[in-house]
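Need tokens for this chain, all 151 residues.
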Amino acid sequence: MSGSKIVLALLLLLPMQSRAAEDNPVSIFATCAGRFSAELEHAWLMQDRNISGIEHLRRQFIDLLNAAVPLDQRRPALHHRIQAKAAHAQLLSQASFSGDMVRSERAARRAKPEIARCTGVLLESRKAQSLALSLPKKLANVQNFAQFLAD
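Here are the structure tokens for all 151 residues:
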């Protein structure tokens, strides 16, 4: 795992400080990796053209999860990921195949914001990554300025 992904995972913690304790990064990353795994299987089943996009998002969450999870928490994180996948797969199945239109629409309405929340996490992580990449340059500028003042 690269250092930038670890920094990214750590910086991702900053916007989440106000969230509930059970929404720790490992839980979020495992949940989203599971949801995107379900989305990927559903896309294969439905012959969706966006399979590569879904695979890319899934891979990002797996990488974030691997960077964030402590070694002694790998099994519980995998269990959490599998549970999230099963729950999301059930929603997608109901949305696509339920004979009850009300139930189908309800499942679709629930699945969409779940995936949107995960996508939002990635947007936040991209902002954090951008910040992390700009920090060395900003620190160098501060150091140069401090050196200028000292001279």
